[in-house]
Amino acid sequence: MSLTSAATLATLDRTGPRRITDLAAVEGVTQPAMTVLVRVMEESGLVERRGDASDKRVTLVCLTEAGASYVRTRRQAGVHAFERLIGELPGDEVEALVAALPALKHLAELESQDREGPKQ
Questions:
Q1: How far is CA 52 from the centre of its chain?
Q2: Residue 114, phi then psi, degrees to nearest 5
Q3: What is the pLDDT of residue 120?
Q4: 3-state class of 47 per DSSP?
Q5: Separation CA 51–CA 40 (nearest Å)
């Protein structure tokens, strides 16, 4: 799976259903490229398109259970990789990482806000 596909699934998991144009903007790709990507992920059973109850002209891209499962599995694999690597560090370096956690959390929050784009 491409990084853009994985990032798009993670965005949908984090923010809920989105328009293709919104996803394209958040992921930094063109709308036609996102349309193709969504079609491929739809054929793979990772996302589905649904109508928007508030605007019948709009189609939203939603994660399926298979897509949500993929995101959870990928995140868990990352957690296990970091656990293993951190376990190989000396104690003083583990302490430095623990001390840096608040700043790292803040960076993640800022990155998430950037990826979600401006609130409408």
A1: 21
A2: -60, -45
A3: 47
A4: strand
A5: 19
Calpha distance 46→103 (Å, rounded): 33
Tokens coding 42: 């739809």
Q: What confidence score (pLDDT) does residue 37 get?
A: 96
| Distant-in-sequence, close-in-space partners of 104: CB < 8 Å, separation ≥ 6 | none
11 forms beta bridges with none
Mean pLDDT of the chain: 91
User: What's the one-letter identity of residue 16?
Assistant: G
pLDDT confidence bin for 67, thresholds 50/70/90:
very high
Question: Is-contact 21 31, C-beta < 8 A?
Answer: yes
**What pTM did the predictor assign?**
0.73
